[in-house]
Amino acid sequence: MFDPKTLARQNILDLRPYSSARDEFTGDAEVFLDANENAFGSPDEMALNRYPDPLQRELKQALAERHGIAPGSIFVGNGSDEAIDLLIRIFCTPGRDEIVICPPTYGMYRVAADVNDVKVREIPLTAKFALDVDLILESMRTATKLIFLCSPNNPTGNALDTDEILRLAASVNALVVVDEAYGDFYEGKSLIGLIPQYPNLVILRTLSKAFGLAAARVGLAFADPVIISLLNKAKPPYNVSGLSQQAAIHAVREIGSVMRTVAQIRTERERLRAELTLLSVVESVFPSDANFLLVRFADAKAVYGELLTHKIVVRDRSREHGCHNCLRITVGTLDENERLLEAIRNYSRRTKAE
Ligand SMILES: *Cc1c(COP(=O)(O)O)cnc(C)c1O
User: With the C-alpha atoms ordered 7, 10, 13, 15, is the resulting torsion angle positive or negative?
Assistant: First the structure.
């Protein structure tokens, strides 16, 4: 039976976490003189003078209902970047342990490992951007504590094969962290529901993409309650602001309107794909389960510069593993996508004429 505590650092297991005023008292009081707040209120009548709930209980309740999982299996962070950093700090001893990542992928896994002086082992995705589970299994060592997978993957856009992820999870004595930042755009199933059967799975989600709350910085981790309690132990006590919790609760309750924009973005994504495919400067548009397209051009640098002259900025990913001459283009509004297409069409015509 897998026990996450056998993987965690001893100093974290031994840690006595900071106990905040709101941790020590949560009952039904009327006069709060326990946290050195300003009882006279805050400017602008915004009522921000009280510390927020350190465990984000109302938000977790809403999320638990949405995902059909207990609140005790949910961690809320200051963006999913906080969850990534905490996982590395809790499970990897600096200078000794390591993580596995599968490039091309999200850049924060490596940055968070580098900050913590934790080694990074790279097992690239295949030419078709699929997971190479056998190669990962061959490379596993006792020092390998975390495997970061991203599905749908950033910057390639494709979801990874679920059976392969689960085959990996079932075969390793390490945490398999699946970053589902783009999961709301994917028509396949989330892995959140499989946590009871795979206690070494950690699923990351964020409200920064589909939910339109990037500025609020709210990220989520779903995992076995033992892992969640370690995350809660190591996090700063008030890691998610009251404003952000309110915005997040509202968004999760308005899931219907969120999913309507998700459907619009998907429709726009496929229209964008069809239009881009017609252009001679476009070599290929990779399949996408997310809200962006990875596009290979004859000359990505030239297209990037050309778009900038039209005040359109995309992401140059051409230096990433397996992504030569590739730009990552986020799906925008109808008008924005038209501006983008018009700029590339013009460039395409000019290039042909030369
Ligand atoms: C955008 C993104 C995130 C989001 O991080 P936040 O800190 O929650 O904004 C996480 N993972 C991936 C792969 C992303 O692309």
Answer: negative
How confident is the model over 217-274, as pLDDT tens digits?
999 999 999 999 999 999 999 999 999 999 999 999 999 999 999 999 999 999 999 9
44 contact partners, CB below 8 Å, separation of at least 6: none
Closest C-alpha residue for ligand 1 atom 3: 181
Pocket test for ligand 1, best of 208, 218, 222 (most atoms within 8 A of CB): 208
Please report which residue ranges of 145-254 form alpha helices under DSSP H: 162-171, 225-234, 242-253
Residue 33, Ramachandran bin (φ over 0: left; ψ between -120 and 50: alpha; else beta): alpha
User: What is the value of pTM for the model shown?
Assistant: 0.97
Q: Closest Cα to atom 2, ligand 1: which residue?
A: 181
Atom of ligand 1 nearest to the CA of 218: 8
Which residue's CA is the closest to the ligand 1 atom numbered 14? 181
Q: What separation in Å is there between the alpha carbon of 277 and the centre of ligand 1?
A: 28
Q: Is the CB of 71 under 6 A from ligand 1?
A: no
Number of H helices, E strands in the chain: 12, 11
Give the span between the Cα atoms of 109 and 321, in whole angstroms: 15
Q: Decide: 106 in ligand 1 pocket, CB within 6 A.
A: yes
Q: How many CA atoms does the CB half-sphere of 197 hold within 13 Å?
A: 8
Query: pLDDT digits over 9-53, tens only?
Result: 999 999 999 988 888 887 889 999 999 999 999 988 788 999 999
Strands 315-316 and 292-297: unpaired
